Amino acid sequence: MIAYIFRRLLLVVPTFFAIIAINFFIIQLAPGGPVDQYIANQAGLGDMNIMQERLGGGASDQVGNQLDTAEANAQYRGGHGLTEEEIAEIEKRFGFDKPIGERFWNMITDYATFNFGESLFRGKGVFELIVERLPVSISLGLWATLIIYLVSIPLGIKKAIKHSGKFDVWTTTVILAASSIPAFLFAVVLVILFAGGSFFDWFPLRGLTSDNWDELSLGGKIVDYFWHMTLPIIASVIGAFAGLTMLTKNLFLDEINRQYVMTARAKGLTEKAILYKHVFRNAMLIIVSGLPATLVGVFFGSSLIIEIIFSLDGLGLLFYETTVQRDYPVIFATLYVFTLVGLLLNILSDVMYMVIDPRIDFESR
């Protein structure tokens, strides 16, 4: 197994490089980059404080003064645009004065040491931005995935045992009805009902913790954390039970009807022993294989709307905002993290295959 894991880790390098390279050149060659957006703001007298915030003080004062002059000139010219020298200065500050191949190589060498540089528009390091937003995404993704699996797998097994019975029928109706409700709509309903909308004010609407977090005891911090996360987690998982529950049920039904189950019954094994010693191990293989996709999807993708509604600053919201702004360092850094985590989770999935069923030996293949 160790040799197999080592080979898979070696394959991560070219796969990872190809994914990053393709996305880099597609995004870089697309129109409407950060330089174009900033020039548009300059010509239209838009937000000038963005670049000033990024540049800060000290060594950037000279360039800041030049940009102030550029703004004044643009205003004086009545918005006719910037000179070529001013545009060249802006491109230099954004790093676009270098060839695209050199920019790509610099990015790869920096990212190899997890040096993500600074945001173009936020005046902070990219790594700092990601670390600030990571607790929200971890909270939503981890708890949502845990709840989905803890509910869906036992429910699917029970539905397989009670197939076509009343329990199976009414639970199918409930989870299918829940899956048809859009997450954002259910989140809005929760806010209206329980977060100071038109009815009850039981839960907070903003942030991951309260303002007095540092003053709370350990128990108080735990209670405060879950108090803030209750509604976002409920909104995240409400429509996610149907797929895994029905998959678990169908897999168990398929395994229950196989010949080895009939043989086990003929040998006098109890239904519980057959179900959890033989059927469970075989049926869980496909479910385990879907765990990485579930983690990546819940952890990074589906939380955007939830973060917006509940005012949570997570990675999903950060990626959306920086994509709109064309903040390339943040875009590529989050893509880097997402891709790396996804590839490593796929390896973990294969390892879990072999742990659950020792008969599977990827190394021999």
How is the biggest beta sheet arranged? none
The CATH superfamily of the largest domain is known as MetI-like
The total count of helices amounts to 17
Binned, the helix content reads over 70%
Q: Ranges with pLDDT <50 over ≥5 residues? A: 45-67, 69-80
Order of SSEs: HHHHHHHHHHHHHHHHH
What does the average pLDDT come to? 76
Number of strands: 0
Which outline best applies? globular
The CATH architecture term of the largest domain is: Orthogonal Bundle
| CATH fold category name of the largest domain | MetI-like fold
Distance between the termini: 11 Å
User: How big a fraction of the residues is strand?
Assistant: under 5%
CATH class of the largest domain: Mainly Alpha
Count of domains: 2
What is the radius of gyration computed over CA atoms, rounded to a whole number of angstroms? 26 Å
Structural class label: mainly alpha
GO biological process, one term: microcin transport
Domain ABC transmembrane type-1: 134-349
Family: Belongs to the binding-protein-dependent transport system permease family.
Subcellular location: Cell membrane
